[in-house]
Structure prediction request, 244 residues.
Amino acid sequence: MQKVKIQTMLGDIIVRLYDETPIHRDNFVKLVKEGYYDGTLFHRVIKDFMIQGGDPDSKGAPAGKMLGVGGPDYTLEAEIKEGLFHKRGALAAARQGDEVNPERRSSGSQFYIVWGQVYSESQLRQFSKQLKMQQVQSVFRQLASSHRAEIMQMRRDKNRAALQELQDKLAAEAERQAARYAGLTEAQTQIYSTVGGTPHLDGQYSVFGEVEQGLDVVEMIQATATGRGDRPVDDIEMRITIEE
Prediction:
């Protein structure tokens, strides 16, 4: 079981990395051992949502500099696993949006720790519907991608009838495949209605660890005053080490 310590001026955060996500675990450990994160900032903080860090460009960044696009020259294969979700204290990998990153590959270095909120049962029912809809959309994008050449040819030929017929067929298949997805599980519902988190991110990002000690530090960071780009007004620098 691999753990790391995130040291900040507000206190320390002990995080356990999941063995179920070995790509993210091993990459994070490698960067920590290299000292990659030392001197970087929690550069993006949103109250009642999450705290984000891991941008190498944040080291020594002057006040007002926009951050959030830095990282190593690689991304990581997504490890979006059933049972690993965005409960309060979850560690997850940041990434670019679906429109430019349909495979949902993770940033090579940027991560966030979830704070979130506690939700009512009615709110969670709504989230469950949204997650099912997202699943349908995700399957549809995958199917459309596999028919990309055919779709592009239909568009060039201005064959609207054939294009509409194919889209309807793919939409029906997406609905059929996504029907197996039940939305929020009992475990998710129980956690989100008591401990809290960010259920709308489930299935979208790779969760690869969780806070074991120092949630009070996460709480203090997420409540800090921020300015442009959600950057804390007072820099919150970090150093990360391996917990033996």
User: Anything to note?
Assistant: The helical segments are 22-34, 121-146, 148-156, 160-178, 186-192, 215-222.
